[in-house]
Amino acid sequence: MKTTDANSQKTVIFVAGGTSGHIHPALAIAGEIRDRHPEIRIIFCGLKGNIEEEMVPAAGYEFVPISARGIPTKYSPWFYRWIKDNIQGTFTARRLIKEVKPVLVVGTGGYVSGPVIMAAAQCKIPFVLHEQNVYPGRANRFFAKRAAKVFVSNEDSKKNFSEQATVTVTGNPVQPVFYNLDKAEGRHAIGIAQDRFLVVVTGGSLGAQRLNKAISDLRDNSGWHSLVDRHPELILMLSTGKEQESSPEIYEGISNVQVTSYLYNMAQWMAASDLVISRSGAMTCAELAALAKPSILIPYPQAMDDHQTKNAQSLAAIGGSIVVKDENFTSDYIVEKISYFIDKPEKLQSMSRALAATDKLPAAQLIYQKIAPYLAVKDNGDNEQSK
């Protein structure tokens, strides 16, 4: 484990993991700190072998693996493994905290947060939490009352936390690249010609079986073959997700379709696209809004408290998205909608304008303002705003 003189350098520990929806907001907040105060050391904790182990170092941060396991939904032999892994993770986090003496710990969700936040509480280190969804995850619910602050995406989230928790609505922090990239820059970055019609399909970092199946079914869909014959400029990029990877041959022979397990430069692909087809996780919706990118959203029907439907409806109400039920998302539906949007580019333009006209809360900046006192820094009066 890399070490420095803890007395000479302030340190902030972030913990996030499981899905990119937990990791991206942590990276956005960390980026805000790094841009303003590059002298502050930032360390990320997460699961070894999980997606955060790749994403965090790629963003230029230190990564420390922590053992953790999600709570079993019912009693089973895994219960003892859950106890063992989380106790081990808590001890690892305590050693790290005693070594680097962080001024603050920031948790943005995922069960790996549990051991690290527990260690922070035991060591009397202040910690803050961010919840992306309307219905909070177990770790955030459990620790909310002991947190210095809890940041949430919208007003509906507040009612799902104890009245004893200090809850502030900030929105979901997205990385600055989502605000700063335009379509031409995105295409230049990924090498897509300006005259192509690009559709990006993603089920998130873990993937979505329904979306992947609908794309694989295009192989035998005569409507798709007819569509690409009429519009050879069409490109469909599918990100299958890490947990939904399957034999690549099921996508072979599908004209104008490209497939990868995960798009690490997702911001560039989304910016470059004409249309995004996706699940409606909280962070995906925040990123679509930041980019003012038209979308077709398919809420995951098993999501807790049906929060993905609520996320999708918020963009649809603005006029920036079309929402379709999971069972209705088929290869025929894909052909119908892509054909419609290719023939009616003005519809995509109006959807984009509707999103661009909305106020975009700089959530990462708001959160920075709230945590600045814990960093013992003053930044253009931010401390006054954090009271």
Q: CATH homologous superfamily of the largest domain, by name?
A: Glycogen Phosphorylase B
**Secondary-structure class:** alpha/beta
Tally of helical segments? 17
How much of the sequence is in beta strands? 5-15%
Low-confidence stretches: 380-387
The averaged pLDDT comes out at 89
In CATH, the topology of the largest domain is named Rossmann fold
CATH architecture of the largest domain: 3-Layer(aba) Sandwich
Strand tally? 13
What is the global morphology? globular
| Main sheet summary | 7 strands, parallel
The largest sheet has its strands arranged as 3-2-1-4-5-6-7
Number of domains: 2
**What is the first-to-last residue Cα distance?**
36 Å
How is this structure best described in words?
This protein folds into two domains: 11-171 and 361-385, Rossmann fold (3-Layer(aba) Sandwich), CATH 3.40.50.2000; 177-356, Rossmann fold (3-Layer(aba) Sandwich), CATH 3.40.50.2000. It is built from 17 helices and 13 strands. The chain is globular, with a radius of gyration of 21 Å. 43% of the residues lie in helices and 15% in strands. The chain is of the alpha/beta class. It has a seven-stranded parallel sheet, with helices on both faces. The protein has a six-stranded parallel sheet with strand order 10-9-8-11-12-13, sandwiched between helices.
Topology of helices and strands:
Blueprint: E1 11-15, H1 20-36, E2 41-46, H2 52-58, E3 62-65, H3 78-100, E4 104-107, H4 113-122, E5 127-131, H5 138-143, E6 149-152, H6 155-158, E7 167-169, H7 177-180, H8 183-190, E8 197-202, H9 209-216, H10 222-230, E9 234-239, E10 257-260, H11 266-272, E11 275-278, H12 282-291, E12 295-297, H13 307-318, E13 321-323, H14 331-343, H15 345-356, H16 363-375, H17 382-385
Parallel strand pairs: 1-2, 1-4, 2-3, 4-5, 5-6, 6-7, 8-9, 8-11, 9-10, 11-12, 12-13
Helix pairs in contact: 1-16, 3-4, 8-11
